[in-house]
Design goal:
23% helix, single chain, alpha+beta, four-stranded antiparallel sheet
Protein backbone atom coordinates (compact mmCIF):
# COMPACT_ATOMS: atom_id res chain seq x y z
CA UNK A 1 0.00 0.00 0.00
CA UNK A 2 1.34 3.43 -0.96
CA UNK A 3 1.96 5.91 1.84
CA UNK A 4 0.44 9.38 1.38
CA UNK A 5 2.64 12.33 2.35
CA UNK A 6 1.39 15.08 4.63
CA UNK A 7 1.62 17.58 1.77
CA UNK A 8 -0.54 15.37 -0.47
CA UNK A 9 -3.18 15.08 2.26
CA UNK A 10 -3.19 18.85 2.85
CA UNK A 11 -3.51 19.59 -0.86
CA UNK A 12 -6.51 17.26 -1.17
CA UNK A 13 -8.38 19.42 1.34
CA UNK A 14 -7.72 23.01 0.32
CA UNK A 15 -10.42 24.12 2.76
CA UNK A 16 -7.86 23.87 5.56
CA UNK A 17 -5.59 26.59 4.13
CA UNK A 18 -7.56 29.28 5.97
CA UNK A 19 -6.91 27.61 9.33
CA UNK A 20 -3.24 26.97 8.58
CA UNK A 21 -2.71 30.63 7.65
CA UNK A 22 -4.54 31.77 10.78
CA UNK A 23 -2.50 29.49 13.01
CA UNK A 24 0.79 30.66 11.48
CA UNK A 25 -0.14 34.36 11.81
CA UNK A 26 -0.94 33.83 15.48
CA UNK A 27 2.33 31.90 16.04
CA UNK A 28 4.17 34.94 14.70
CA UNK A 29 2.12 37.26 16.94
CA UNK A 30 0.41 38.87 13.94
CA UNK A 31 -3.27 39.48 13.25
CA UNK A 32 -5.00 37.31 10.66
CA UNK A 33 -6.92 38.90 7.78
CA UNK A 34 -9.59 37.07 5.77
CA UNK A 35 -12.17 38.10 3.18
CA UNK A 36 -15.69 36.68 3.41
CA UNK A 37 -18.48 37.36 0.89
CA UNK A 38 -20.92 38.39 3.63
CA UNK A 39 -18.55 41.24 4.62
CA UNK A 40 -18.76 42.94 1.22
CA UNK A 41 -15.64 45.00 0.42
CA UNK A 42 -14.24 44.73 3.96
CA UNK A 43 -11.84 42.24 5.53
CA UNK A 44 -12.09 40.52 8.89
CA UNK A 45 -9.14 41.05 11.19
CA UNK A 46 -8.68 38.54 14.01
CA UNK A 47 -6.15 39.08 16.76
CA UNK A 48 -4.42 36.25 18.65
CA UNK A 49 -6.55 37.32 21.66
CA UNK A 50 -9.72 36.33 19.78
CA UNK A 51 -10.95 39.87 19.12
CA UNK A 52 -12.46 40.32 15.63
CA UNK A 53 -12.95 43.47 13.60
CA UNK A 54 -14.29 44.50 10.22
CA UNK A 55 -11.56 46.59 8.54
CA UNK A 56 -10.40 48.17 5.32
CA UNK A 57 -6.88 47.11 4.31
CA UNK A 58 -4.12 48.99 2.50
CA UNK A 59 -0.84 47.26 1.63
CA UNK A 60 2.10 49.69 1.79
CA UNK A 61 5.01 48.86 -0.52
CA UNK A 62 8.62 50.00 -0.86
CA UNK A 63 10.30 51.45 -3.96
CA UNK A 64 10.68 47.90 -5.39
CA UNK A 65 6.92 47.30 -5.04
CA UNK A 66 7.53 44.79 -2.23
CA UNK A 67 4.97 44.80 0.62
CA UNK A 68 6.37 46.27 3.83
CA UNK A 69 3.32 47.00 5.98
CA UNK A 70 -0.38 46.30 6.27
CA UNK A 71 -2.36 49.40 7.23
CA UNK A 72 -5.90 48.69 8.38
CA UNK A 73 -8.73 50.95 9.45
CA UNK A 74 -11.31 49.51 11.84
CA UNK A 75 -14.90 49.87 10.63
CA UNK A 76 -16.52 48.03 13.55
CA UNK A 77 -15.84 45.42 16.21
CA UNK A 78 -17.45 42.01 15.65
CA UNK A 79 -18.83 39.80 18.41
Amino acid sequence: MESTSIVDRLLKNMGNMHELGRQRAFELGNPFYAKFTEDGDYYRKELPTGEKFLVTVEILTDENDMPVKVKDTIIKKLN
